[in-house]
Automatic annotation (TrEMBL):
GO CC terms in record: cytosol
Family matches, as PANTHER family: TRNA (GUANINE-N(1)-)-METHYLTRANSFERASE (PTHR46417:SF1)
GO function term, MF aspect, one: tRNA (guanine(37)-N1)-methyltransferase activity
Protein name as it appears in the record: tRNA (guanine-N(1)-)-methyltransferase
Subunit structure: Homodimer.
Binding-site residues for S-adenosyl-L-methionine, renumbered to this chain: G114, L134, G135, D136, Y137, V138, L139
Length: 235
């Protein structure tokens, strides 16, 4: 059974979008994963096909109605569908590679993409959604976040990446930022490639890369560095 993704959205034309190209697109055509985008508006049954309304308590913007969102979920997830239901929102827990791995190793995912100010809180609770954020910034809707989450999952599926090497490399880097990469020409605009990379000494290359990865992590992501150092101390 292939990884099955369903996007619930007011803009189904946004899917598969970039995921129809390159590695993810080839995997989609090969049946390694499936994607369907379902129009939430198809579940709006009044004359104007209303999906949103003004917020109780006042304030800016509109809120997606719980009854319409719930009907869209019911239509997308038959009884016994075990896929996690994810709501993309800046209020969610931050997406990281561990969560990507967890989702990619399951049967698939249902992604609720919000627009406007968001979705009525009651349907989030009633459906026990997992709320996930890409980062501390606000997108105009969940669609780009859903595409990003899927891209990160699909590249981990068996058969997508010529996998073994890249997967191994990732586990070796143990959550550090990557070391810098170089290719030909060996000198470009007066800039030389670090000599150790041309030395042919595999152990020294490995050591240099490890040092570079650690230095970059320490300087650019002290938050990550602290967590890794704490983990190493605990192990
Ligand atoms: N929707 C709007 N902003 C978002 C974010 N930062 N992450 C996930 N979904 C979002």
């Amino acid at each position: 059974m292939s990884f099955h993704a369903t996007a619930l959205t007011l803009f189904p034309e946004m899917f598969p979008g970039p995921l129809g190209l390159s590695l993810a697109g080839r995997a989609l055509r090969e049946g390694i994963w499936r994607l369907d985008a379902q129009d939430i508006r198809a579940q709006a049954h009044d004359r104007h096909r209303t999906v949103d309304d003004t917020p109780f308590g006042g304030g800016a913007g509109m809120v997606m109605r719980p009854d319409v969102v719930d009907a869209a979920i019911a239509a997308a997830m038959p009884e016994g569908d075990t896929r996690p239901l994810v709501y993309l929102t800046p209020r969610g827990r931050l997406l990281d590679q561990a969560l990507v791995r967890e989702i990619a190793s399951g049967p698939g995912v249902v992604l609720l993409c919000g627009r406007y100010e968001g979705v009525d809180q009651r349907v989030i609770e009633a459906r026990a959604m997992r709320e996930i954020s890409l980062g501390d910034y606000v997108l105009s809707g969940g669609e780009m976040a859903a595409l990003t989450l899927l891209d990160a999952c699909v590249r981990l599926l068996p058969g997508v990446m010529g996998g073994a090497e890249s997967a191994l490399e990732e586990s070796h880097s143990a959550g550090l930022l990557e070391y810098p990469h170089y290719t030909r020409p060996a000198e470009w605009q007066g800039r030389a490639v670090p000599p150790v990379l041309l030395s042919g000494h595999h152990a020294e290359v490995a050591r240099w890369r490890r040092e570079q990865a650690e230095a970059a992590t320490r300087e650019r992501r002290p938050d990550l560095w602290k967590r890794i150092a704490a983990g190493a101390a605990a192990a």
